[in-house]
C-alpha cells in the first residue's frame, strides 16, 4: 500500500488548479487461470499488476490519469496532469486535507484461502471433470474448461479526507461441452463463481457441474425444433436473471438516465412493472459473484430497492451522478481496474421472490415454453428491446412439462416484460457473468424466481436493430 504522506501530497497536487474533488485509487492484484481443451492443458497463465488512477472533478467534468509508476515523482506527475486537464482556472482557496482511515463495513477475506489450491490440484480437478464428460459417449466432441482466480488489494484516498483499504478474492469455474450427431451440433455451458477462495469446491462439485453440461449438450441433440409464435413463457429460477440484468438493469443506472439513454428517465414514482414485481441491486449478499464490501470509490456496499411492488423507486448511483442530483451515492461506483474511472454499475441484481410454488406456475399454464437456461443475445440499451438465445427449453402442454426443444429465441421488450409478469415463484436462482459497459468489464450476478410472462415472441429471427444494440455473451 502507498504511504499516507505520499497520498496526501498527490491529492494536494491534484487540487492545485481548483478542482472540486480529487481521488487516488491504488490497486494491486494477482491473477491465475488454467484452461483445459481438447484433452490437454491448453494454457496456464498467471500475473501480477499494480498501478494507480487519479481523478479530478470540477463543475461536473472529470479528468482521469493512470500510471504504473508508483514512485512519489510518478504519482505527483500524474496528479498534476489530471489537475491541469480541466482548464487553466485560477486555483481555488487552499483546502487543508487531512486523511483519516476508515475500515470497510465487513471484515477482510483471508488471502490464504485462495492459495490452498495448487496448479497440480487444479489440473487434477480438470482431468477428472473431463473424463466424466467424455465417458458420456462418443457424441461428446469437445470439452473446454477453465479455473480462474484473482486476489485484489485496493486503497482509496480522496480530498474529503477519506482513506480506505480493502482486500478480497474472487474465483470462477466454467465448463463448455459440445456434442454432435449427423451434422447437428449442440453445446451447453455451466459456470459458477463467488467472492471467496477455493473453498468454493467444498460447496460445488466441479465434476458434477461438468457432467451436467455434457448431458445437456447430448439432450439437445434429440430435442425437436422450437415452435414459433407468441405464447406464455415461464422462466425458471435456475435460468438466472439475464433478462432483468440486460433488458432492465442497465436502464436503471443513473448515468444512462441522466444522458437520456434510458426508458426509465422521468418515470420516478410511476408504475413501470406489474404489481408484486420488486427489483433489487444488492452488493451485500454474502459470497455472491458481484458482491463487495465497498465500491471502487470507497462507498459502503448497499441494498438498493430500484422497483418496489411495480413502482420505480430509485436508480444506481456513483459519486458523480449522485452529486448532480444532490443525492448520496448508492455504492454502485465500479471500475474494471486502476486504468478506468468509476461509473454506475450493477452488482447482484434480481427480481425478488413471490409467493407461488414453481410447480403451481407450470400447472397454471395450459400451453407455453419453459426456459431453464438462457444464452447470449442482443439488447437495445435505450428502449430495452431484446433478442435472447435459449440454451435449454421445454414445451408446456396441459400444465405439464413435455419434450425438450432447441433453437428457441425470445424477442421482446424489457420494460414490457416487467409489466407482463403475472406469476412469481417463491424460489430464487442466480447466474454469474462479466458485464460490459463503456469498455469496462466487471463481475456481476443476476437472479430471479420462477416467473411467468403472459406473452413473448418465441422462435422468431427478427432483430430490434439500431445503433445501440449491445451483443450479450454470458460468461
From TrEMBL:
Biased composition (Basic and acidic residues): 321-339
GO CC annotation: cytosol
Pfam families for the chain: PmbA_TldD_1st, PmbA_TldD_2nd, PmbA_TldD_3rd
Keyword NAD: no
Domain Metalloprotease TldD/E C-terminal per the UniProt entry, residue ranges: 229-460
Domain Metalloprotease TldD/E N-terminal: 22-85
GO BP annotation list: proteolysis
SUPFAM superfamilies: Putative modulator of DNA gyrase, PmbA/TldD (SSF111283)
Keywords of the record: Hydrolase, Metalloprotease, Protease
Keyword Protease included in the entry's annotation: yes
Gene3D superfamilies: PmbA/TldD superfamily (3.30.2290.10)
GO terms for MF: metallopeptidase activity
UniProt region (Disordered), positions on chain: 321-340
Metalloprotease TldD/E central domain mapped to chain residues: 114-221
PANTHER family found in the cross-reference section: METALLOPROTEASE TLDD, UNCHARACTERIZED PROTEIN TLDD AND PMBA
Similarity section: Belongs to the peptidase U62 family.
Protein name listed in UniProt: Peptidase C69
